[in-house]
Each structure stands twice: as structure tokens, then as C-alpha cells.
Fold these 2 entries.
Entry 1:
Amino acid sequence: SQQGEEDPQALSIQEGENATMNCSYKTSINNLQWYRQNSGRGLVHLILIRSNEREKHSGRLRVTLDTSKKSSSLLITASRAADTASYFCATDALFGNEKLTFGTGTRLTIIP
Amino acid sequence: NAGVTQTPKFQVLKTGQSMTLQCAQDMNHEYMSWYRQDPGMGLRLIHYSVGAGITDQGEVPNGYNVSRSTTEDFPLRLLSAAPSQTSVYFCASSYGGLLNTEAFFGQGTRLTVV
């Protein structure tokens, strides 16, 4: 079964706006990661946040983690057409032998 | 730096045929894994390996075999292809260890079983 569930499943915004997507997971984790997948391509790692961290930034990306609610959010600021992609959260469960479990993804479309 | 290389990129099989999907990485990563991606279902873990000579099952292992004779290579074998195995397959690798779980992915193999 999926560990993570992203919300919303699909999101369309105008270029320049901010995009927020959320991830919920079921069990205690070591780390939570976000990945991007362009159509027909492999996944690319964006950012990793550890279970003892609450917020992390990387360029236009901001990730938050709330372990009490078992949820995370990914904010992309000042969106660009090139941000059009699917975004997945992935967790490695505490005592889970490093296995990454992925959510079902959010399909983000940036309208020029 | 090639990263993670998967071959072939596309493959059509007849039901009952067998084949091997190849995966190689040149980053000296200990941890390697295979996922399948189906519409609306994200990525599901098939098999993984924490080092040469060590493999274990993931979430959906039935119908697939793996081996890890070297650090670099982690082939996935379909024993007797079925239409339900039509999917996009991704190989991934990482340094390993709980502090280094960032995964590097190959470009995928799109498999169709008819």
C-alpha cells in the first residue's frame, strides 16, 4: 500500500503564482523527500527533510514537515512554465531498511 | 558521469516470454532498487538490494527476480511475462544508509506485454 498520498491530484496555476502541494503519510519516518518527474522521464530529487527538521528551503522551493500530523507540504514560489511536471513525496520508514515509498503524485500545470 | 543507465528504453513482449531489464550505475552506490509506475498509482517497489549479494522483496515482487553480483549492476528478470506487467519500470540507486536515502533514477523502460 502507498505510504504517501499527495493532495491535490492535479493543480493548474498561472505562471508567476505560487504552487502548494501536500503529502500525508502513515508511519513514523526517518526522512521525507520530494521528487519531480517530467513527462516520460525519470524522477529527479528536489529536496530531503529529516524527521527532526520542520522547514527547509532550496531556491524557489520550501518544504515543511509536521511529524505530529504526519504531513508535509511543498511550496514552489514564482512558478515558471518549466515547473510543469508531476511531483511525488517519498518516505523511508523508521526501521524500514532504507526503502523509499512513494505517493501517487500531484500533476502540476503552469499556464503561460 | 552517466549516473543510472537502463536498457532497453522500450520493449514489447508476448505473454509467456521472459526478458531481463538491465540497470547499471557508476556512482558506487550500495543501495539499488526497482520500481514500476502505473497510471494513478505512483511508484511501487518491486525488489531492492542493500549491497552486492543481498536482495530483498518490495511491495510487488511476484513474477520478478533480481540478483546483485556486482555493486554496479542490478538486473530485473521477468520470468513469464503477463499483460499485468505492462508498465514503466524505473531503476534507482543511492549511497545507502539512513542519512543518504536520496535516490538517483534511470530514465525508465516502457514495457508492453501483449
Entry 2:
Amino acid sequence: DTAVSQTPKYLVTQMGNDKSIKCEQNLGHDTMYWYKQDSKKFLKIMFSYNNKELIINETVPNRFSPKSPDKAHLNLHINSLELGDSAVYFCASSQHPGGEGYKNTEAFFGQGTRLTVV
Amino acid sequence: AQTVTQSQPEMSVQEAETVTLSCTYDTSESDYYLFWYKQPPSRQMILVIRQEAYKQQNATENRFSVNFQKAAKSFSLKISDSQLGDAAMYFCAYMAGTASKLTFGTGTRLQVTL
């Protein structure tokens, strides 16, 4: 069973189009993320959701709109795609470390979506 | 702001030998977690090892161990008895205790030669 699954794995689209990437986790985690990995392999947080609420938005353009219908799903919609949006987008989930004591906080990642804008 | 630095863009090790990947970080927090993730050509991000800052004992997972020097803010990864399957990008990552994001280093590409 796949713990964090995202679809599609590959996405090739033209500039100006709108596209979505879907993510689902079956780990029972309360926090989900979107990370972007650029062509130099640098990974950077985009968004973080805890119990369906947005808690981190790292200066991502408004063209990117995440949506979390429930704790197990976090989708990413991108409007008016630009060449610079070409990257690998990773969904991840973890259990929020806040609260009493220490918990397992490692993030489990999906297999990534390679987005190519032409 | 927290930063994570990996000063070795590439490393090479012979099969069965030992290699150490370096990582330093900067934080003013006292409660945090550190991780090493492996990314093979398949691009899947795989957790290798984790360390809680409050634990003095260095984490170990089979052939993988860390040298956690809290005062120096250093978190190196040692891979013993290297195998061809260890060839990958390795990312050091930091998370503050109550935060909800990982901050990654720039990665070290590890080559394993025969």
C-alpha cells in the first residue's frame, strides 16, 4: 500500500494552461505539505496544512492554490503556467510535532510529479 | 531563519568503504529534529535516519549512523560498508520542534564505485 500517493507522475503542458496535482495519504497524519524541487535539486517548502488549515505559505505566487478537502488529501492547482514553474513537486505528510512530548515527526514523501511547461 | 548547509556537492566512495557526508545548520531553537533523506534516481525521497536534538546519543540505523554535535551545530552522516545501492543524492534537513516544515540543505551527490 502506497503511504503518500500523488498523481500524475509526469505532466507536460503549455504555457498559460491550468493544471492540478492530487495527493492522498493513508498514514493518518494531520499535516500535509507541498515542496518544490528545482532543476538544481533544491527542495523548498511551498505550503503546509494542518487539519485542513493552511499554516505555511512560503511566498508562493497566487497562481498556486492548494486545497485540502480533508486531512488525507491536499491538492495543488496551478493557474496560467509559466516556464519557470517547471520542476518536480512533492507532496508529503507527517504528524505535527506540537503538543505533549515528542512524536514521530518525519515526513513521508510521495513519488513526485515532474511538471514540464513548454 | 534556520539554514542548512551541505558543503560537499559531490562525494565518491568505493564499495565496502566508509564515507561521511557533512551537514551544518543554524538555529536559535533548542527543540528541533534533524534528518537525512536519500533520493535515488527514481526521485523518491527516502528517510535514512532521524535525530532529536534533546537526545545526546547519536542515532544509528544499520550501516548508517550520525555524528550529532549540538554545540557545533553539526550533523554528519556516516555510511559504512558502502553498497552500489547507496548511490543517490543525500539531503540533510532540519525541523524546529513546533514547526510544520523541513528546511533542506542543497544536497550531496554520492557515487559508489567498484
